[in-house]
Target: Glycosyl transferase family 2
Amino acid sequence: MSEVKVVILNWNGYAHLRTFLPSVLRDTPEKVGVVVADNGSTDGSAEMLRAEFPRVEVLLLDRNYGYAGGYNRALACIEADYYILLNSDVETSPGWCEPLIAALDADPRLAAVQPKLRAYGRREYFEYAGACGGFIDAFGYPFCRGRILFTTERDEGQYDTFRSCFWASGACMACRREMFTRVGGFDEEFFAHMEEIDLCWRAQLVGYRIAVEPASVVYHLGGGTLPNDSPRKIYLNYRNNLWMLYKNLPAGRLWFTVPLRMAIDGASALVYLAQGRTDAFRQVWRAHMDFYRNLKVLHTKRKKIQGEAQARPCGIYGKSIVLRYCMGRKVFGDMM
Model:
């Protein structure tokens, strides 16, 4: 029988843990361990966990390493065949983890699988950060079954099929330890945002597949650490997207896609400026400058990734979802 651990990374999430952890403990079988890895919190989270949730194993990290670095360090200390990475602001439902485990058991090539993510505040709607399985378009823009850009669909069972996808959401993702170790875990220099897409891309390049299992349902609050419109999040998303594209695109697409994507970024920065959002404009500029500054390091990573690549990923949409969205095509079924 496979050993499974649910691993929640926490940073000053005292309120989220008290709100959402009871559902995890209620809905998760006793045989599945629950670990909270604390990323150097200063809000008393660890002390509260020990006092109020004795079933939970608490793993203390010495400082905040971000999502990527925090999970890398935590998982290196946790013995399990499968990890279920779970955000601290996720409410689970009865039977949520069994379908994810069964999917990994059934297919040794399956690297990671996510559940259906619904919005905690609008429970009949898909949630932004993963919805019902992630994809990317020709220019690296992520989208999902159930979410295109900022439009989320009502869940009416239209995507209730298990299927391969391009990326599994870091809000809730069951992954195989063997895969995580083989590809070197998350890229810690991402710190947070898009590191799970990068991980899933690298896993596919070495022959694994990614999937979504809608028989498992969880409810995600979202925006628990950084609001969607925060300057820090804008910077990380623009920077990390360019880093991801540079590392993982095949040579035949790299020199066309990255410059064009940067031009699109420049256009969006001008829109921010026209809206009076000078902070957002500066973050796009900063992201591009950091891309140039890190080209040598990125090239070293790219050589290693491309040298080990042996398969083509599934789930890259060959067109622009931004263009299609502007044409009025705002649901997943209109894209694929």
